[in-house]
Amino acid sequence: MGNIETQKSKLIQKYRLIDGGKMKKGLVYLLLGGFLFGGCNCGIRTEEETYYEAPNWTSDNKICFLELYYVAKYRSNIITGDELFDEKSEVWVCEINNDGTGKKQIKEVMDADYRVGLISSSSASNWIVFNLEVRVGGNSQYKIYVIKRDGSELKEICSGMYPDFSPDASRIVYQKLNQGLWIMNREGSGDKQIVENVNATHPAWSSGGGRIIYEKDSLLILIDTIGNQIGMFLEPADYPDWGPSDSNALSVGELSNYKGKIIYLFIGIL
Question: How does strand 192-195 pair with strand 200-205?
Fold first, then answer.
């Protein structure tokens, strides 16, 4: 009886050894295949960022701007590196006092499963016009929206870039991609081209209402509201923006050192 049990025990141990060896070898092949073809997913990393961009003065000396809350999730992989597999954007139109107090989120205007680009904003009277880079059918597009400062009447009005309000907020000058500069009514009607040159960009409506300045090939060009050229600022600059209504002041960017400066135009009533 004892000999039979002993033989049986040895047979079981031999079977387990052989079977276990096969299992271990199969596991090695499985892991090796996973490393070679899929890498090793060793964890998930989440990054959260908040961006404040596209500031512009309001008619009551506050500042409107765009706030982006962005979340990105990455899957760690020792073969291919971190892989982005999920992202989310929330975009808010905001206001703040000029001393940095009283920050207010006016309205959430975009909730998307990709990173939204913040381009520009402009305010006049009780309105804000702003510009976002969004995805439509997998392609990036630039969209222009208007909204009241109380958060009501949000509306997408057209495709375009760098919109700027007339002083009474009734009209908008903007850049149409590869089609120069255009003016339209606030609700998007009455669209009319005023500058044909496709390199014209960053238009800014004067605080007096009679002039528009824009950038072309790093030079600033001054026109009236139907497109007639009045003057040109020969020193390289970009991103012009008008000062108060009682001045001919412009804030511009200096291309040589990425700093801002103030220039003054002495060309009559603006």
Answer: unpaired
